[in-house]
Amino acid sequence: MRPLRQSDRRKLDRMYDVDTRKRALALVAQGRSLNSVSKQTGISRAAIRSWQTRIEPLPRMLPQIRPCCRCQSAPEWPGDPAAYSYLLGLYLGDGCISPTACGGYYLRIACADAWPGLIDACVTAVQTANPSNKAARVQAVGYVAVTGYSRHWPCLFPQHGPAKKHERAIVLDPWQQDIVDAHPWEFIRGLIHSDGCRITNWTTRMVAGERKRYEYPRYFFTNKSDDIRKLCTDTMAKVGVEWTMLARGSDPLNVSVARKASVALMDAHIGPKY
Ligand SMILES: [Zn+2]
Question: Other CB atoms closer than 10 Å to residue 116's CB: what's the count?
Fold first, then answer.
């Protein structure tokens, strides 16, 4: 007789209460065979046998769900505000929230396959912010969508809305701005990890008759939304990073950090993608 699977046990837990189980086992204790007890009671032999080792129902594994800090009774930010600041940067850069038929929402952040370390960091951030502590990876062509399900994503990201982010105003709520002010580097890191990059340009220069190679690392943040670029540059200004806006055609799309001291600051807190 094969042992019962956990799912079979859970089905039995719903079908038979403990008194019924005790009565079946009492018949077995009288010396009756499992077969005959099974015939008399209509309970399978495997079920009766499993109760000989454990009569109590399996403990119910309810997911540990924290109250939402925006719409439920959680006065303090329950998770890790630094992780939220990072996730907010990721979300504004490359995330979306979509409603499901059952009243919940999926948060999705697209992470390129090329940077496995960033995928791990994103999973941790989604888990930390999600009241149910859950996150999943969904492999697509060339990228992994890190997803999390919750009814409360719009509470945590009130920037959620029907149109694309660059087609509407993106303004942080005061409580979000407080978190970004307290954890500015995490926010910038999230923005750079989703919609930014660190590249190395190089050039040569003649020094004392010798051609020398010079490298110029710089950071870019590229986003179509004027508001999101401004959130990026405002936060950079607060931590002392100098930036310039580069236009593509007539559109100012790229925030560029090229000054040596500012690149060094960015390297100390963010660095290349990994
Ligand atoms: Zn909520």
Answer: 12
User: Which bin fits 164, alpha (ψ -120 to 50), beta or left (φ > 0)?
Assistant: beta
Distance CA 112, CA 176 (A): 27
CA–centroid distance, residue 98 to ligand 1 (Å):
15
Q: Round the average pLDDT of the chain to a whole number and report it.
A: 88
Q: Which of 118, 91, 121, 116 is nearest to 106 (CA)?
A: 91
The pLDDT of residue 176 is 93
Minimum mean pLDDT among 74-78, 88-92, 119-123, 239-243: which range?
74-78
Encoded tokens for 62: 């309810």
Q: How many CA atoms lie within 13 A of 43 on its CB side?
A: 26
How far apart (Å, rounded) are the C-alpha atoms in residues 79 and 90?
A: 17
Q: Which two tokens stand for residue 72?
A: 């439920």
For residue 173, report the distance from its CA to the centre of ligand 1, in Å. 14
Task: State in Å: Cα 171 to ligand 1 middle.
Answer: 19
What is the pLDDT at residue 138? 93
Q: For residues 190 and 181, what is the distance between their CA atoms, to the nearest angstrom?
A: 14
Rounded CA separation 180/176 (Å): 6
Token pair belonging to 15:
């079908």
DSSP 120: H
Q: At what angle do helices 116-129 and 81-94 cross, to 10 degrees?
A: 120
- Tell me the per-residue pLDDT of 98-117, one tens digit each, with 9 for 90 and over: 999 888 999 999 999 999 99
User: Torsion-angle region of residue 162: left (phi > 0), alpha (psi -120 to 50) or beta?
Assistant: alpha
Q: Which domains does the chain have, with CATH numbers?
A: 6-51 (no CATH), 81-269 (3.10.28.10)
Q: Collapsing DSSP states into helix, strand and coil, what is residue 160?
A: coil
The Å distance, Cα 157 to ligand 1 centre, comes to 10
